[in-house]
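Two entries, shown back to back:
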Amino acid sequence: MRPSGWQVMAGILVNAIYAMKNYPMVMVNTVLSPLSFLTVITFVSKGQLIGEAIEGGFIMSMFQAGMSLQGDLSHYKNDFKLQDMVVSTPSSPVAYVAGMALGEIIYSLPALAVLVVLAAIYINPGVVGALELLAVLLLMFLGSVTLGFTLSTFSSDIIQSFAFSRLISTLFSTLPPVYYPITYIPLPFRYFAYLSPTTYAAEISQNLTGMVQLSSLEIATAWIILAAVSFVLLLISIKQARWREI
């Protein structure tokens, strides 16, 4: 295996396997966060929005997984000086962040597994629909990972990192209409929802499963905006992240 491959594996071990093996209770939050909102929305809507709520759970899980990277990287950087050690080696920031990011996905597997089972029962999107939904979630994850990494390089304290991570996660995965159709928001306030990229991810997902009906132009626009946001965040991460200025 190449050195970059070992760096990715090390990131997964440090950021996921160690905590999951030694402190299994820490995974409870990753399961409860998306499923609690799903349960509330399902009960309030008397089951009518269970499909939208399941898709919202996927979006929330992937976005929060990416943003969790901020707190974890800040912790390793400031408390264990891990980033200092990585900087002094031939390892690249890409391999380091990729390992940590994959660790976040593995860390979220219990919640994702439950959502996959629920999706198979209540949504059954088919192979093509499932692949398109996966593409949406990966774009959402890429954007949140790059944002989390950039913010972690500027953070000087783990408490500060957790505060920003929770704030951003709330703003982008709870307040926007990811667990229900955007049509439930009164029109004067609906425009504010479009400021969040998760709104476009939810619209694409809900259209794929037939829960909302959007025109080809609206779908194309949503894809373009979602991809553009992820690309811009990636550029910002490449240009602005303080990899060696620790």
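entry 2 starts here
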Amino acid sequence: MSFVSKEKTAPATWKVAAHIEAADFRKQLDATFAKELLNITLPGFRKGKAPRAMVEKRFGENVFFDDALEALLPAAVEGALEEAGIEPQFRAEDLDVPEDQDWKANGVDFTFSVAAKPEVALENYKGLDVEVPAAAVTDADIEGRIHELQHRNARKVEVESRPAQNGDIALIDFLGKLDGEPFDGGAGQNYELNLGSGQFIPGFEEQVIGRAPGESFEVNVSFPEEYHAEHLAGKPVVFEVTLHELKAEELPEVDDDFAQEVGEDYNTVEDLKAGIAQELVESKAKQSEEAFDRAVQDKLAEQLEGEIPPAMFDRRTQQNIEMFLERIQMPLEQYLQIIGEDPAAFEARMREQSTAQVKIELALQEVAALEGFEPSDEEVEAEYARLAEQYKVPLARVKYAVPEDDIVNDLNRNKALELVKGEAVKTEV
């Protein structure tokens, strides 16, 4: 078995040509025939006793070709990669064995593709300049949270003395028509529409404003060009609308009674403001730390140099999509219809996220390698124990499911991130 040649087809991706010697293949074919013969019965012969020539005449000369090849290929691929000096990132793919070969005389030629482990470089990972949002709490922040609490505790009162205005809740019936014919999903009855919320397509809510309860009228709008339903995208439609009633929010007055109603720990408005301020300080500090984490990792990935095989991005994208669908528990098509996103745009968004993840992981691995990080046996055991406690499963089950190499890599990446964060220069803006 031997390596023949390699051709670079993409960054860190190779097409490898290799060869299995005729003698090696014939030897494996003999072993395969001896094994498979035990299951073969021919007329006039006991099971497993038919001569090889008779079996090949009955079933064809290449009857066990695929079985012999399957037995030899793993070692042949591994040997070819070793001779070629390629450290694979994933298993070989796109295996091709041309059919028009004289394998008896010349052996077997084959090719395969493989993504190599990327070789990356990272020079500047200490002293990264990172900007994060300031964690300071302003009076406007506190007033904004109080306003939210007012809306949360508001009463909805019916409005009869005026037409609809921005911020009202309109109870409507509607029927959408395209070229005079109703279309799927374009009808509703007794629907509560918050005017100004942007729930409906652009232009709809604006044409309800100014109408009075009891009115029936037409709304003329066009669906956005990028609308998820292709038969409606960019099309002008007419909605027949009846406005049944209007409701408006009646906000409570911000006084001591309001403060006591909002939280049992508050007796006065000043207590409420102080409590909100403390909550915001803690929340903004947490958000600032999370933003710092993200900014450091993004900045670190920018410093990474080297070729990364596209297969790494492809696989991570597919994994992320599968995990996302498992989390939302609905078909992708249904989800995209709900949010109004094109499948191509969704995949591009997921790929962008996956690309960043791969680069960050490679950068952290490189930092760990440069710093010579290597977790102790005690640290590895502690991480296994932490995972067992987190997922409430026996320790042995975690060790069976999670390879030790994965634990080591995770611990090294965490140490690397803490190092880079500790060395980074943080500026609040």
